[in-house]
Amino acid sequence: MDSEPHPTVGVPARDDNQASATAPTQDRSTARPAQTPRGARNGDHPSRPGALPPAPGRLFAVSAWLLAAPAVPLLLGVLLAVVSWQVAANGPLLGLDRAVRHDTAQLRGSLHSGVLDGLAHLLSDLGSTVPAIPVLLGAGVIATWRLWRTGRPHRWLPPTVAAGAAVLIPLLVVPAKAWFARPGPLGEPLQPHEWGWYPSGHTTTAAISFGVAALLLGRTVRRSWPFTAVAALLWAGVGAGLIWCDYHWFLDVLAGWCLSGLVLWCLARWLRWLPRHERADGSG
């Protein structure tokens, strides 16, 4: 055994080699001795102590800043333009559609799961006019009620935005479908009453409807990220369901995501310009 004395960890030694009688200070957040001056530092928010990075509130603030960055619509616009050009010109990028469809069919056949098939059909149906539009309009009504209950101004904003988004969806999707007139994955020619498959109307309807609903409801509560997370899961679920069920090509879904992403970015940017006193005051 080592006979040399070892200093007590975390307790400063005095000149007489005796441990200090002063007990080490305990950090209130971790119940451990404070090793750095940050242990005595107060947090900038009661729910986000500065002594314990990373703080969840700050992470969500960074995410919100990234979503509001001008590079986001630029990337979405460029991606949408490239995909649209390839679809119109029957370019080599369409090979990605065929590869995704082939791999999905193989996976679907190997799993042969009725549960997954049923879930995929259910998710794809969420992009229909019903229930997506009623959810959008209902969110506008709920947001208006919460604004009225807390006595905040601009109570007309949520129903107006919800109704405008509901009208905007077909104005964006129908002309594009008619212009590209792209056949579906089954390869059947378009019928006179059909507009085409590009971009995906179900994807665009779901993304705009649930996304706008999340933005409107998020303005009435302190933490809006749960609404955003649920909306994002629904966007991804609807797109995955459409591809799994062989209802749409992958690029159809991707174009719907890009198109709706541009709409949601513009709306989120505009809502950020509203005065802070018109947003949630933490009552919800």
UniProtKB/TrEMBL annotation:
It holds the Pfam family PAP2. Residues 18-28 have a biased composition (Polar residues). SUPFAM superfamilies: Acid phosphatase/Vanadium-dependent haloperoxidase (SSF48317). Residues 157-268 form the Phosphatidic acid phosphatase type 2/haloperoxidase domain. Keywords: Membrane, Transmembrane, Transmembrane helix. It comes from Kitasatospora acidiphila. CDD domains: PAP2_like_2. InterPro entries: PAP2/HPO, PAP2/HPO_sf. This is Phosphatase PAP2 family protein. Residues 1-52 are annotated as: Disordered. The chain crosses the membrane at residues 64-88, 129-148, 160-180, 200-218, 225-244, 250-271.
